Amino acid sequence: MSIPFDFSAIQPEHFTLAATGYGVVFLSLILLYFIFSVMPKVLDFRFRKQPDAEGHATHGAHHTPKQSGEVNAAIAMALSLYFSELHDQETAILTIKKAAKTYSPWNSKIYNVINFKGAQR
Amino acid sequence: MQGILRFFEYSGFANVTPGHILMVLIGLLFIYLAIRHEYEPLLLVPIGFGILIGNTPFMENAGLQLGIYEPGSVLNYLYQGVLKGIFPPLIFLGIGAMTDFSTLLSNPKLILLGAAAQIGIFLTYLGALVLGFANPEAASIGIIGGADGPTAIFIASRLAPHLIGSIAIAAYSYMALVPVIQPPIMRLLTTPEERKIRMKPPRAVSKQEKVIFPIAGLLLTGFIAPGSLPLLGMLFFGNLLKESMVTKRLADTARNALIDIVTIILGLTVGASTQATTFLTPQSILIFVLGALSFMISTAGGIMFAKLMNRFLKGDDRINPLIGAAGVSAVPDSARVAQTEGLKADPNNHLLMHAMAPNVSGVIGSAVAAGIMLSFLM
Predict the structure, then answer these.
(1) Where in the sequence is the domain holding A74, given as residue range(s)?
(2) Could you tell me if A76 lies within 8 Å of chain B, comparing CB atoms?
(3) Would you say residue A61 has pLDDT above 60?
(4) Nearest residue in A to B108, CA atom
(5) Domains of chain B by residue range
(6) In-domain check, residue A54
């Protein structure tokens, strides 16, 4: 099978599509980048401007101290483990023990059944 | 005796061709990779089994209504969801309902990596034209570089329905082979020092930001590229269901039952669409080659753009270029690969959270690219 290479198949409008397409993808995501770079500041500003009952401007959203993502993740993990009652060691594991039953005619029903006739003789 | 002969004529033994056997082997390989190596099992098991279903030989066009391409067959009805582009938006709804965009919102500059990585789509589009594909076919093949199966299927269903099988199989194969394809490119394009770059922990993101994101994202991308609305509309809708916290039941359904049902039918029918008699063509081989090329270029594009950004960034604002590879939207596998490669360079450097940002922006980027292709070529 020969592979047909035909560079003349690319017309100027194809380049236009490729360049415009890539440009528009970038443009969309750059706009998203700008919006969400500014968003935290806008939201923070909005809450800072909200006056409290006595007319004083409050600082930050409900005075919530800023925690790092790692601290929040650790708190969330701890709460999740607490609410789903997970343990580091499953207690059930300790209860799984092999219960060895020593054979005895006293506790074997089948023994009595088998030997019943013999006992009758 | 005549009845027995007739029965034999209808059986698979009388209709089998070397193509069927080859495709069955490929199906078995997919199932093996999924079960033994856990490469994208949720996709490769249905697709692999679908290949077995589609390539179990039978007498075609004998009025039995069995094959996926025979009108009236059950498989043909299920396949309509693929052909009409119904399943991909539903998959996007589920993806939106299960995706947390917090990492992206906490460090918005990482969005740009998702844009940069789409270069593979447009370069491959030009490459496919050089190889003799028609304009709409070339656009559908280029989208494979976005490493987004549903987007690739959606575009192919609109622009080149006769290539859906090859494009879908190529897209999902490369998505499954992310852990094989990407690491060599990542190592080739980065220095050991760059791979050790530690990024600052993401900040906490407020609920307001999370709720505003899907609304602003939809309006912005929808106005710029309306062709992407079926995909991005559903993606952002699913995300709003999740983040609003008042539609928990709907979000749960979208991210569990709905996406599972659609994945099963989509995977199975796409697999079955690879019927040897229609699938095994020289075109399919070219599509596989171009798809691999597209995927590699996209990976390299993300990494190189991260390196470029580092020229303008200082201190802990710098980006570990490994996460640039996650700009292809194979969620979350390419992010996992970035994490694994990062750990190899520095066992205490966890990149997964950072890599999720370009990963999810890659989903948006590839859907926008698809929308633009549709706007130009429909």
Answers:
(1) 11-62+69-120
(2) no
(3) no
(4) A33
(5) 85-377
(6) yes
The band of B265, judged by pLDDT with boundaries at 50, 70 and 90, is very high
Q: Please indicate if any CB of chain B lies within 8 Å of the CB of A35.
A: yes
B317 C-beta neighbours (distance < 10 Å), count: 13
What pLDDT digit, counting tens, does each position of B301-338 carry? Answer: 999 999 999 999 988 889 999 999 999 888 888 899 99
Q: Which of B113, B124, B129, B309 is the best mutation test for A, with the most CBs of A within 10 A?
A: B129
Tokens of residue B334, six digits: 């390419």
The total of structural domains in chain A comes to 1
Best A10, A25, A30 member to test B by mutation, with max B CBs in 10 Å, is A25
Q: Within a domain: residue A84? A: yes
Cα of B345 to nearest chain A Cα, Å: 22
Q: Which two tokens stand for residue B46?
A: 């249905």
Is A92 domain-assigned? yes
Of B105, B119, B209, the CB nearest to A22: B119
- What was the ipTM of the complex prediction? 0.85
The answer to the question of residue A1 being in a domain is no
Q: Which amino acid is at B229?
A: L
d(CA B45, CA A114): 53
- CB within 8 Å of B27: residues ≥ 6 apart: B48, B49, B50, B51, B52, B55, B271
Q: pLDDT digits over B2-57, tens only?
A: 888 888 877 888 888 888 899 999 999 999 989 998 888 888 899 999 999 999 88
